[in-house]
Amino acid sequence: MKVFTSIFLALLISCPGRDQAQKFSAMQKNIHPAQIWSDTNGNAINAHGGGILFFEGIYYWYGEHKLDGKSEAQYVDGGIHCYSSSDLLNWKDEGVVLTVDYKDEKSDLAYGCILERPKVVYNEKNKQFVAFFKLYLKGVGYETSNVGVAVANQPTGPFIYHHKFHGGGSPNGSGDFSMFRDDDGKLYHLTVRKPDKAFVIGRLDADYYYPEGDYRICEGIELHTEAPVVLKRKGVYHLLGSGSSGWKPNAARYFTTDNVLGKWTYHGNPCHGYNKIDSVGIEKTFGGQSSYIIPVQGINDAYIAMFDIWRPENPVTGRYIWLPVKWKDGNLSVESYPHERDRQKAIQQAEKDGGKNIQSFMEIQDRVADQSKGLYGANQFGPETWTQFMNVQTPMMQNMMNSYVEQSKNLFVQMQDKMQDQTRAMFSTFPFGPQGAPGGQKEDKS
Ligand code: GAL
To answer: Which of 146, 177, 289 maximizes ligand 1 atoms within 8 Å of its Cβ, making it the mutation to test the pocket?
Structure first.
């Protein structure tokens, strides 16, 4: 029976659970704004100017893939890099899902083009993932911009380049943008028009391929507003953006409206606090520029604002600042950084609650590995003995396998739950409010 169990355990090693356990060994437990963020392979995440898509229980982070060893002045853009995660902390590298064209000089994506700020939206009608990005053709520079459009049948691509269009209804196109999908599925392109830098809004067609109708000026939004991020909460549209100073950070700006096509109200700079790591305050948005706001799943009213710290001399080393969004009187603010003491306390709690199950899961996997080592190493069975043994034992083993698979499935589910709890606990270190748990949030009176 002991041998039999060992054989079974050996078989179990090759099941997907093993990979999963290895992945968790490099587990991140917290977000560290402005510091190097490694993916599950231990490599620094390379997804700048990015955005997040949540699809079927998984978050996908799409960003600019910056080529190693190049500066912004030296053709640094390599395409769109995608990472996936179930907890917003641990990101699996899904590779470059849209690459620039290194062979065809005439391609719109010919290497040397500028490909920036990718955002991916799911089009329910076509069951298609549509990627949008700023596209400046090779040799043209920043004068005339296009919106590049690429499509995929699954979130991890591959994305196929589809076409480009000039945003803003201008022959010079438009620059930084937000693709905002309203509750009714309508997709809006909010962007800074070239060359006058007016901030405008247009609606895309039902395929999310081209603008439909004219763009209109967003009344109340200052000229030169870049890096816009739009989200809707309790019927109000919120726009977080920056001023216009290229790769150099400037102060964030914030606007709201009840009607996305109507007049916006300006609320000044919504940031508070200080980035101690880089010694930068809110006059420079902690050294970053906005790129997206993530609605956190499973936590009521929780959002995370994403910013990029650009490093134009060596863009691949650019960092990310992720900070919690706080709500007061219906308006958002972004605070860097929560009190270290509270953060540490919450991390410890998360470890206490969430770590245990994951730990035991990994122990099981390790035991499996140990037991099987003897089996393979000692070479106890020759191929014939093995075949004979298998013929006799297969039905029995099948049964056991099924029950083990079932058990390990349950373990996975438990583990996922624990991870989600852990994520929640982690986010409670951010000032989402004292409760931080689903449904536990204080209602905003606004
Ligand atoms: C920023 C913009 C970036 C990049 C940069 C170039 O304002 O947000 O995406 O285009 O300018 O200078």
So the answer is: 289
Quote the ligand 1 centre to 285 CA distance (angstroms): 15
Residue numbers in the chain where pLDDT is lower than 50? 1-25, 355-397, 399-405, 428-446
Query: Based on C-alpha coordinates, what's the Rg of the chain?
Result: 25
Ligand 1 atom 5 nearest Cα: 246
Q: Is 197 left (phi over 0), alpha (psi -120 to 50) or beta?
A: left
> Which residue has the CA at smallest separation from atom 8 of ligand 1?
227
Establish whether residue 246 lines the binding site of ligand 1, counting it when its CB lies within 6 angstroms of any ligand atom: yes
Residues in contact with 42: Cβ distance below 8 Å, sequence separation at least 6, in sequence order? 26
Nearest CA among 281, 234, 225, 283 for reference residue 254: 225
Q: Is residue 247 in contact with ligand 1, taking CB distance under 6 Å? A: yes
Assessment of whether the complete model's pTM goes beyond 0.70:
yes
The verdict on the CB of residue 176 being under 6 Å from ligand 1 is yes
CA 150 to chain centre: 18
Give the span between the Cα atoms of 338 and 367, in whole angstroms.
Answer: 40
**CB of 227 sitting under 6 A from ligand 1:** yes
Report whether 40 contacts 92 (CB < 8 A): yes
pLDDT digits (tens, 9 = 90+) for 214-239: 999 999 998 899 999 999 999 999 99
Residue 185: CB atoms within 10 A of its CB come to: 11
